[in-house]
Amino acid sequence: MLGGEDPEALGAARRIQQYTGPVMAKGLEDTALYRFNRLIALSDVGEKPDRFSQSVASFHDFLKSRLDRQRHGMLTSSSHDTKRGEDIRARLASLSGHARVWDRKVDLWAEILLGQGAPAIDRGDLSYFFQTLLGAWPVEIEPDEALDEPRRAAFQDRIGAAMLKSVREARQRTNWNVPRHDYEAQLDAFIKVAMGSGANPFLDDFRQFEATIAWDGACNGLVETLIKLTAPGVPDIYQGSELWEQSMVDPDNRRPVDFGARAALLAQLQDDAPLAPLSRHFRDGAIKLALIRRVLALRRRHAGLFADGDYQPLEVAGADAKRVLAFTRTQGEVTLLVAATLRPWLRTPAATALPPCPIAGAAWRDVLQNTAASDGLCSAELPISLFIAERP
Fold first, then answer.
1. Phi and psi dihedrals of 296, rounded to 5?
2. Per-residue pLDDT tens for 158-174?
3. 9 in any annotated domain
């Protein structure tokens, strides 16, 4: 179009490409993705918000392509530029299993808040707020735990800042250049009512709903973490993501990280202890930290397997086969088997069989439970399983 190898054409192409990236970012990532609020877990950098799901087969095709083309490329799930942390997205993705209940809750909460004196705000912003609040509500807060005033006020400030940025970026009711202070004041007043201390019927009902889906979100987060650590590529763990990562859009995701707390929790974990018991107190994040530690140690022992090992989708047998994503990584006399149970809101373990060990003279070992493998592919307590077989 620009004249092939002509020097002037190439120069023009280079100059144009200095602008195409920023224009795309401003138009899609910094505007459209703030307007498309149907499920904000999908409205993030690199996402396609109109694609709600993909088949297990297409996911396998994608990972096989990564092995062929980008086996040493970075695998990241959170960064300084993502609009919401990986575990916000994982929790919100679980709404697909509670869609009808969620629709009713949105209408109910809007009605309750109007009754509590909150001003009306745009319906799209209302949806964005409820999803942001649900995704970012600190998972470490137990359902029956009282929220002390300093923590409540700090969280309200963070939510308020994220909401103000979202409506200005969307540029529908206000914007950065010409702010509509009247609408922004309405939004601020709405958030203060929603997050108010004292008697708060909205927050009481909201927290009950959060309690019903918290484990679903955690399951999605564990599945994402295990796949990131075992799929073809080099996993990147963004600062703070060793535990549940519920940061909102920048600058919220650039806050200082309490590495001391993470180090203290890590010191409490036993190297070879089974992971399943940690699910009983999943809200503290120890189960995610233990998973990362366990798989990173495995990567260190079998660096070649993870760097260049073959990738093969695993055909799963059993009544719940469609709920399971499984694959193997193989190099030489070592095979790794990864399995993840999808749709955790069904609340039942997937009944699937562990395939025969492919290595003569070896047997599967359950990496996460640190035991000899049982006959089942999927855990009854966790949404993830990891097995290894190697020649003695």
1. -65, -35
2. 999 999 999 999 999 99
3. yes
